[in-house]
Write a structure and sequence with these properties.
- By secondary structure, the chain is α/β, with parallel strands linked by helices.
- It has a domain at about 120-275: Isopropylmalate Dehydrogenase (3-Layer(aba) Sandwich).
- Helices cover about 45% and strands about 20% of the residues.
- It is built from 11 helices and 11 strands.
- It has an 11-stranded mixed beta sheet, with helices on both faces.
Length: about 325
């Protein structure tokens, strides 16, 4: 069994030689979210711009002994205005990442997806959990467990591509994507198996690139080599998957929380498909998980800068 948090510590260590990423922190109006931004800055991961009611943020910092003297504060009267102002900072080129504070996720994402003033791209926006499972050698990426409730096949093309791009940005040597269902055979009565087969054929036709896809696969034969061998599944993904694509949000949410509460895993969260990576933290997250979420955003932002520089050559 790997040491708990070892994978997250490696992610954070990979950012040590990178410049801090300018990050708009939307409405950090509780001690947890404000402390998370300050700790990430102390680790050299981000340069936070605190967006929210100035007097409330300053009073919170004073009350909890959090030093924010060197950080810029953009005054916004309430949570909805904080989300809009944070998104505006990104659009103005003053931030390369967005971080959720104490506002509701729906408020932040509402500002992100607005057609005229938001951060949409041609890609579908989707969420990834980067799971640090102590008993598993590699980090596991699970998608989508937080944004897309019942994604269509068209949505899943972007969900898969977002996850592959994330894995490449994290420098996984090989991206092995399991399209999950309740079984490993195509069954016309189970729509997720049909979609899994279609996604794999789309990858064969280079409509999805950068990873090796297989599916449908049940969870056991996606991550257990023994289970794959027992079921005689001959595949470069079966038993070795590092990206798990779930049929819908309910399945993904239950899978991630099962790993968290039954297997002692941690779940760093990131939203992809927008102009910049969006750091989604939970009030229940540990400090190391919050830092890992920031580290993932730093690496995603770096990968985007590298791609942009390459495109100019």
């Amino acid at each position: 069994m790997a040491r708990k948090h070892e994978k997250y510590e490696r992610l954070i260590a990979r950012c040590k030689d990178l410049p801090p990423t300018p990050t708009a922190v939307a409405h950090p109006c509780d001690a947890g979210s404000l402390q998370a931004a300050v700790e990430a800055a102390r680790e050299g991961l981000i340069t936070p711009v605190l967006v929210g009611p100035r007097t409330r943020i300053e009073a919170l910092a004073l009350q909890n002994g959090i030093d924010i003297a060197k950080f810029q504060i953009v005054d916004a009267p309430h949570s909805e205005a904080s989300a809009a102002a944070a998104v505006a900072l990104v659009r103005e080129g003053k931030a390369e990442a967005l971080m959720k504070g104490s506002l509701h996720t729906d408020e932040l994402m509402g500002a992100v997806v607005k057609r005229e003033t938001g951060l949409r791209t041609a890609r579908r926006i989707s969420h990834c959990f980067i799971m640090d499972v102590p008993a598993h050698a590699e980090p596991l990426i699970i998608t989508d467990a937080a944004v897309n409730i019942s994604p269509t096949l068209r949505d899943k093309v972007d969900i898969v591509q977002n996850a592959i791009d994330l894995a490449l940005g994290l420098d996984l040597p090989e991206v092995r994507v399991a399209i999950l269902s309740a079984m490993e055979t195509v069954n016309p009565d189970v729509p997720s198996t049909i979609e899994a087969a279609a996604l794999c054929k789309m990858a064969d036709r280079k409509q999805i690139t950068g990873g090796i896809l297989d599916g449908p696969l049940a969870l056991d034969n996606a991550i257990s080599m023994e289970a794959a061998q027992i079921k005689k599944i001959d595949s470069p993904v079966a038993g070795r998957a590092n990206v798990l694509v779930v049929p819908d949000l309910e399945a993904g949410n239950m899978l991630a929380k099962s790993l968290t509460f039954l297997a002692g895993a941690d779940a760093a969260g990131i939203v992809l498909g927008a102009r910049v990576p969006i750091i989604l933290t939970s009030r229940a997250d540990s400090q190391i998980t919050r830092l890992a979420s920031c580290a993932v955003a730093v690496l995603v932002a770096k990968a985007r800068r590298d791609r942009a520089a390459k495109a100019l050559v």
